[in-house]
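Quick illustration, no need to memorize.
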Amino acid sequence: MNINNLFRIALKSIANNKMRSLLTMLGIIIGVASVITMLGIGQGSKDSIRSNISEMGSNMITIRPGADMRGGVRQSSSGMQTLKMKDYDAIVANCQYLSYVSPLVNASGQAIYSSNNTPTTMYGVNENYLEIRQYDIVDGEMFSEKDINSSAKVCIIGQTVIENLFPDGSDPLGKIIRFNKIPFRIVGILEEKGDNSMGMDQDDLILAPYTTVQKRLLAITYLQSIVASATSEEDNDLAIEEIETILRNNHGITNSDDDDFYVRSQQEMLEMMSSTLNMLTILLACIAGISLLVGGIGIMNIMFVSVTERTREIGLRMSIGAKGRDILWQFLIEAIVISITGGLLGIFLGIGVSYIIENLFNWPISIQLYTVILSFTVCSIIGIFFGWYPARKASNLDPIEAIRYE
């Protein structure tokens, strides 16, 4: 019996039992659709976080004071004063893998204009901070080096601060606002960036010269942190090594001593979050894969039923010359057709459901080609695996006994 005849017989058998075949396919359809949707959600979330971190500055490196032990008590790193301007100057002068460096001090407080006020944070930085954090000025200009040297009371504000202080839509440029009772003149307006991957509002901020924040708001001479941007993502590790070497030399730290600072990069955060999301995606895919397994068991059950119902037919085919392998292929092809058809329908359903979820709930979803190929391959293997045993049983039937079967 040739392969074309086997296909025709398999298709005829499926057509004669449409409802049963459709219900058998349903497990495969739901399984494939679930795998595609779950993997799409996982990949979309990972891409979204990568994009958000890139907007924050994917090459950004942050240097902060480390915690210290005093009298047997570990002190908070926020109270440490180990970072000085000389550290900043040394990093600028000696780090070849950094493109931009900025001191960073910040103060929280109330911003006030006329009868409007809002709680926010003022960050003391230099002109390189915009490049490090990838902010753009849409109106006005960045404060100058002269403003930094003179500790000028000028500032740049984000869109959230504008919405809260100027709800009437008036132009804030050139206006005087007060922050913790200190007057600041607005010289620039930042472009809107929205929330980051942590849900933090990137537009709820005020930028001012770091010297102004140090002297007029905090009354300190040390730096709370230093932020920098590596020349490229590939140079992150080299830049961190350079920074650590410079600071250890500056602070007189020997190899046996603990650092009184720590250096972190956005790349580390990205890798950590990607690793977590990968584990979550694998977990979701495994849960969805259970549906495929259940669908495969459904195929096996239906094929056993089909073999039982058609025992006399199998005996007649064998009595007129059909061989065991012909019977084997007949039922195996039937199982494969059901599995592949269910797989194709599951792919379309999975893509459709993903599109609905993305548009209805505004979830980031990214369906990769490998996801579709993997789902289809797995469902095909399941069809062969779970269809083989019933087909094997049918091929081993004794023709005489099969004809006598009632």
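The chain has 13 helices and twelve strands.
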